[in-house]
Amino acid sequence: MAAIKQFGGFLAGVLAGILLMTVQSMPGVFTADVSASPFQFSSVSGDTYDAVVTSKNRKSASAQMRPEDKILDRSGRLKLAANTADLQRNAVLFAWALRRHLDYVTLFDFQPLTSDKGLNRDLRDLMERDCRPENCDIGGRHSWNRMRRLAEVRKMLEGDCGLLSLRSGHLQGIESHMIRNPAMQVRNDQMRWEQGVKLGTGRKAVAYCISDRDQYGQPQERVVPAGQLFMLGAFEGRFDQIRGVSAVAAACNDFRDIYETKALMQAKIKLEQIFGVAFIRDKASESLADEFGYDGEPDEEDEDAAAEAEAPGPPPSYDLGQDVKGFDLNKGEDLKLIQSSNPSQNQQEFLQLCIAIAIKAFDLPFNFFDEARTNFFGSKAAWLQYDRSCVYKREDQLELHRLYTIWRVRRWMLPTDFGGTGEIVLPRSMSETDVKWKWVPRGMPWWNPQEELTVDLMAAAAGLKTLQQICDERGLGIWTDNLERLQAEFATARELGFNLAFQPAKLPLSLSFADSRTKPSEVTA
After folding, report:
1. How many domains does the chain have?
2. Last residue of a domain, which of 226, 248, 270?
3. Using H for helix, E for strand and C for coil, what is the string for 83-142?
């Protein structure tokens, strides 16, 4: 029986081989080439990435992956914050790059978008009032414009910060180092605290512990709900990151090296300036007066001074004014000045390269630092690229503005008995969800007004953008408000006996201001 099975297996193998040879010999049938490729890597060299191969030529990273909050623990966060704060105080380049980042990321204008014009006007007036320092900051020092700017500063320097909303309607700035784990923790609650954040389901932040010291230096702690603290943080690396990490941490050493290198270059330049001018006498001259053509006979005092000059010691010097000294050298003496082309051309180019690399931590183009580096078109292209990089950066600020606005609107709508002000009463046909708004990033004015204005109006005439979008892009406010102000100005001019007239023929889209007694103003394309 076993012999029959073996013979059957042998016969099946023979038939399979004959079938395979028949198929391969048929025209139009493709077969896989299993021959060794000349470009195939051998198993001796190993198929791997060079980035994971340890080499003595460069530093190798640790193969252990840890959470970002473990890598940058509280001690590391304090050191990084101290480093960036010192750069902001002393390094001009770092402080300039930070201010330029703030100019593009923290400027917003409030625009209510409800269907009720009267409600829109009330919302703008209330927002303007409560954004003033006395109504916004608990210390009465900062307006909302400055609060959001300072919050972005702490985010860039320390990684994150918070704005604590108070029952009085004010905000209190909470810096990163003030958020820490509570000193007294309940045993069943201890494992839920991490970096000053109490974590819930899915590692969601449910509370924060704020630590500070009173006027006597005694530590004080308070735990606040997460909804009461408006957090602003830099999250650019990990999904499970709890606390923000400064986006400029990678450039701190570069900025410090530039700061110290510049100081050393200045010291070398100063060292060259402290030496004086040497007057070397020839063999026929007996004194410094002979070099300047003095023909009189020296008196006894001059002879004594000349004898003293021949004695060993430093050469006599003469104040020539303007902090320049002249040295009277003896015969055969010489005074060499320490000179070097400092800083050399290579040093200047390398320093510029270091600056270009460092400011990339803020995504700043180099022509922002050196405006003469490129022409108008190169500057405009670099600005467009940088402005695109700011779109994502503004998202964090827009989320902070969203939380702030929701808190403000709810306080205006709540009655005084429930902790609100009751200043906003919605019509019966509207609910809280109908109160819409937006914070518009403040745009840039036209670089070339005559050409860019024409292009914007052509886009509006073609239906590619609205007039309100043009106003948003250029920081011109609300378009309908501008029309109302123009209407008032034209009416005032008519009352005073003047006529204001435009030349709409030169524009692809213009306003024709008709007499209000005949027909209203209309837009013509």
Report:
1. 2
2. 248
3. HHHHHHHHCHHHHHHHHHHHHHHCCEEEEECCCCHHHHHHHHHHHHHHCCHHHHECCCCC
Angle at 217 between CA 211 and CA 222, to 5 degrees: 20
Residue 281 is assigned to a structural domain of this protein? no
Q: Which helix (H) or strand (E) holds 358?
A: helix 345-358
Whether 467 is in a domain gets the answer yes
Alpha carbon distances (Å) from 404 to 322, 393, 422: 60, 18, 18
Tell me how far apart the alpha carbons of residues 288 and 290 are, in angstroms, rounded to a whole number. 5
What distance in Å separates the CA atoms of residue 459 and residue 283, rounded to the nearest whole number?
86
User: Considering the domain boundaries, does residue 19 fall inside one?
Assistant: no
CA 74/CA 195 separation, integer angstroms: 7
**Residue pointed to by tokens 């306080």:** 411
> From CA 521, how far away is CA 483, in angstroms rounded?
10
CB distance 393 to 102 below 8 Å = no
Contact 482, 471 (CB under 8 A): yes
- What are residue 246's phi and psi, to 5 degrees? -55, 135
Q: What is the pTM of this model?
A: 0.75
First vs last C-alpha separation in the chain = 99
Tens digits of pLDDT across the chain (525 residues): 555 555 566 566 656 666 555 545 555 544 545 455 554 544 445 678 877 888 888 887 777 888 898 999 999 999 999 999 999 999 999 999 999 999 999 999 999 999 888 999 999 999 999 999 999 999 999 999 999 999 999 999 999 999 999 999 999 999 999 999 988 766 566 668 899 999 988 889 999 999 988 777 788 899 999 999 999 999 988 898 999 999 899 999 999 999 999 888 888 777 666 655 555 555 555 555 555 444 445 555 555 555 555 555 565 665 656 556 666 666 666 666 555 566 788 888 999 999 999 999 999 999 999 988 888 888 889 998 999 999 999 999 999 999 999 999 999 999 998 889 999 999 888 888 899 999 999 888 888 888 888 888 888 888 888 989 988 888 888 888 888 888 898 889 889 988 877 766 666 666 665 554 444 444 443
Which of 206, 226, 248 terminates a domain? The answer is: 248
Q: Which domain holds residue 473?
A: 443-525
Inside any domain, residue 287: no
Tokens matching residue 501 = 């007239």
Q: Per DSSP, which regions of 186-296 are E strands?
A: 193-194, 197-199, 205-213, 219-225, 229-233, 277-279
Are the CB atoms for 183 and 58 separated by under 8 Å? no
